[in-house]
Each structure stands twice: as C-alpha cells, then as structure tokens.
Amino acid sequence: MAFINIKNVKKNYKIGDNLIRALDGVSLSIERGEFIALLGASGSGKSTLLNCLAGLERPTSGEISFGNISLNNLNEEEVTKFRNLNIGFVFQSYNLLPHLTALENVSLPLIFMGIGKKERDEKAFKILRDLGLSKRIYNKPNELSGGQQQRVSIARAFVSNPKIIFADEPTGNLDTKTSFEIMDMIKEMITKNKQTLIMVTHDEEMTEFADRTFFMRDGQIEKVHEKLSIDEVLN
Ligand code: ADP
Ligand code: ADP
C-alpha cells in the first residue's frame, strides 16, 4: 500500500456553461519520505491537485488515500482533523497572521492539537532557533524580511512534526540566493524527520532538490522526471 495514492482523480469547475477540467485523470503514488515537485504552467492544475490532496477541495471523481485511509470515506470534520494532525503547509505569500509575533504564529498549529502553552512556547522557540531566528521571536511579520518570514512559516509548518508537508510556490517571492537557502533548510528538515514533501513550483531550478518531478499540463501529468540515485550515477 502506497503512502499516498492518487487514483484517476478528476476535478471539474463549472463557470456558466463552461466546464473546466482542472484535473483530468491524475494517477500517481508517493512513498514515505519522498520529495515530489509539481511543475507546470499557470492553470495546469497544480494547486487544484494540492488542494484535493489536503482535503480542502473534493475531487469530482477518483480517489485519494493515505495508507489505508481514503479521503472519500471521511466527512468534513474528519478531513479537517486528519489535516490538522498530519499536514503542514508552506505558502508563497507566507500567510502569517500580521498581529501575532513569530513565536505566536509558529505556536498556532499546536493550539489546534490541544497542546498546552508552556510546551507550545518551548517547541516554537526551539524550531525558530534551529532556523536561525532566535533574535526575532517577538517580531511581527512586517518587521521581518521576506526570507525571515518564510523561515517563520516553515517553522509553523514543521513545529507539529507532521508526516506530510505541502508547499505551494515556497520560493515564489524570494530572490535566487534566499530561495536556495530556504530549499536547503526544507530539504534538511524533511530528511531528518523522514517527512514527505509535495511542492508546487514553476521555477525549474528548485526541482533539483526533489526526488521526482511531475510535469503537469492541462490537468494531466505529462511526464515524470526521476532523479538518478547515487548508484545509477556511478554505474
Ligand atoms: P495552477 O496551480 O497550475 O496554476 P490551478 O489548479 O490553480 O492551476 O487551476 C487549474 C484550472 O482550474 C485553471 O483553468 C483555473 O482557472 C481553474 N480553477 C481553479 N480553481 C478554480 C475555481 N475555484 N473555480 C473555477 N475554476 C478554477
Ligand atoms: P535578508 O537578507 O535576510 O532577506 P534583508 O536584507 O531584507 O534580510 O534585511 C536585513 C535586516 O533588516 C534583517 O535583519 C531584517 O530583520 C531587517 N528588516 C528587513 N525588513 C524589515 C522591516 N520591514 N522592519 C524591520 N526590520 C527589517
């Protein structure tokens, strides 16, 4: 049984008389600990696939399962609980709450998990320190640079040690140097914790961090690029 299994997933949107096939029969399986990149032009269906995987949107048909749990069999409340316990999110625009400090932003997922204040603060501080932000914990987002805000949002995604991380254009607003620093940090964290990462990007350079890259076009997976293992490179 695959860690994540996507079976012939379709997602249609109706706009007036027009039917938009945002996902047009996507099938793939992902193993635990894999770093997957989804690459494709704007409108190719990347965000829709991520949203369906996160249970934020329901596919029109097909099935998404995590191990032996099929999202089709969960109601909205169960999907929300599954998401809060298992999935961390990193966004292009950071999505930090502006009136909260870095420490408070990072603590949020732990509140949803019912963890007490002392433990929340300890965990949030530790991960912010690991990401080089110990002097910034009481700063609010508008007092931080873009790279620092993205590190806070990475801290928030990882603080609850979720099994799966979804990153939607995590380097989309960052310069090249900061993008590589951020990707190095993400890669180090998922490797250390054996987490599975699915990243949407349109920056081909960022796919070099991924184990596999899926190229999307018109709601379908057009091709897959697998990174050669070290054995394959040597042979
Ligand atoms: P990408 O992330 O690759 O840019 P999206 O998944 O956002 O692509 O969009 C895929 C297609 O579905 C596009 O044609 C987009 O306009 C359409 N789409 C996405 N979300 C909606 C929505 N909520 N309502 C209608 N159409 C949508
Ligand atoms: P980076 O190279 O990490 O992206 P910048 O060059 O943008 O950082 O910023 C340099 C320093 O200025 C950083 O330590 C950052 O905390 C601080 N800084 C950046 N933007 C702001 C801001 N809007 N308010 C306060 N301090 C800021």
Overview of the molecule:
The protein has 235 residues and is of the alpha/beta class. Helices cover 34% and strands 29% of the residues. The chain has a 6-stranded mixed β-sheet. Strands 2-1-4-5 form a 4-stranded antiparallel β-sheet, with helices on one face. Helix 3 crosses helix 4, helix 3 runs parallel beside helix 5 and helix 5 runs parallel beside helix 6. The longest helix is centred in the last third of the chain and has 18 residues. It is globular. The model has no long low-confidence stretch (mean pLDDT 94). The structure holds adenosine-5'-diphosphate (2 copies). One adenosine-5'-diphosphate binds next to helix 5. One adenosine-5'-diphosphate binds next to strand 1, strand 2 and helix 1.
Present the secondary structure layout.
Layout: E1 4-15, E2 18-30, E3 35-40, H1 46-53, E4 61-66, E5 69-70, H2 76-86, E6 87-91, H3 102-112, H4 117-130, H5 146-158, E7 164-168, H6 176-193, E8 196-201, E9 212-217, E10 220-226, H7 230-234
Parallel strand pairs: 3-8, 3-9, 6-7, 7-8
Antiparallel strand pairs: 1-2, 1-4, 4-5, 9-10
Helix pairs in contact: 3-4, 3-5, 5-6
One adenosine-5'-diphosphate binds at residues 142-148, 178.
Protein name: ABC transporter ATP-binding protein
GO molecular function: ATP binding; ATP hydrolysis activity; transmembrane transporter activity
Domain ABC transporter: 4-235
Briefly characterize the structure.
This protein has helices spanning 46-53, 76-86, 102-112, 117-130, 146-158, 176-193, 230-234, and strands spanning 4-15, 18-30, 35-40, 61-66, 69-70, 87-91, 164-168, 196-201, 212-217, 220-226. The protein is α/β, with parallel strands linked by helices and 235 residues long.
